[in-house]
Amino acid sequence: EALELQNKLTAITVKVNGQDVTLEDVCYKPLAPDNTNCALMSPLQWFQNDKDNLDLVKHGRGFLDHMYYCSRNNLSPVDTDNNGLPCLGVYGGPAITNLVYGGYTGRVLQAPCARQHQLRAHVTATVVPK
Known about the structure:
The protein is an alpha+beta fold.
């Protein structure tokens, strides 16, 4: 459900001076022109915004284990502890933990297994009035 919500939010179109404007038109794309995906800070980036990756279970380890790993190793090209997925987002860079979790300080995820903790994701929208 979170992925569906994120996809709906990133697909919003607004009118500015009579023209349609989308997130793609105004977002930060640090690797453009080679990679034209927006840099989104979301835990879903650790799954490359792919539902199949979210549902992946390997050796009894699932999405919470991958979230735990990536929250501690957000530059990792491969999660060697769990499912082999990268921690890098679809834009080619990291989803930085303290931005993903809105002020994460490192104190929440200290136990060896993410299942022992509640993980939360924030959706932040900025509306600029005319």
